[in-house]
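In this section we turn from sequence analysis to structure. A common task in structural bioinformatics is to predict how a protein folds when a small molecule is present, because the ligand can shape the pocket around it. The inputs are simple: the amino acid sequence and a SMILES string for the ligand, here zinc ion. Study the lines below before reading on.
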Amino acid sequence: MGYDELLEDAYSKMPEKAGSGERFDIPVLDSFNEGNKTILKNFQAACLKIRRAASEVSKFLSKELATPATVEGDRLVLHRKLKPEAVNKKFEEYVNGHVLCKQCGKPDTHIDSGSGQRAKMLVCEACGARGVVR
Ligand SMILES: [Zn+2]
C-alpha cells in the first residue's frame, strides 16, 4: 500500500464531521476560591460560546446561588465561597433552560423578549421551534 492509500484509509476510518445530532458541549467554568469569593476565570469566553450576554448569565447565577456577582473583565466574581461543581451545575441549568433548543437540542438559539409578549421565548434558528423560557 502506498502512502496515499494509507492516508485515504486513515481518513475513511475517521468519525463523521460535525453533523446533525451532535451534542453541544456545555462549556465548563474554570473557578477558584479567593478568600470568601469564587472567581470564574473563563466567564466571558463561556458566555460567548453559548451566545448569551455575560450580564444575563451573571444575573441568573447570582439569583440561583444567592450571592452578589460582579463581572470584572473576562471574569465573574461571586461573593461567596462555592465549589466548582455547584457553580457548574447552575451554569448547566442555565444552558439547558435558556440556550439549548427543546426540540432539536441545538444551541443555535436566541431569546425573544419582544414587546407585547409577557414571557420570554427561546427561538431556535436551526429548527424554528419556540418555547417559553422559565
Ligand atoms: Zn431547534
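The first strand starts at residue 31 and ends at 34. As an exercise, try to locate the residues that line the zinc ion site and compare them with your own expectations.
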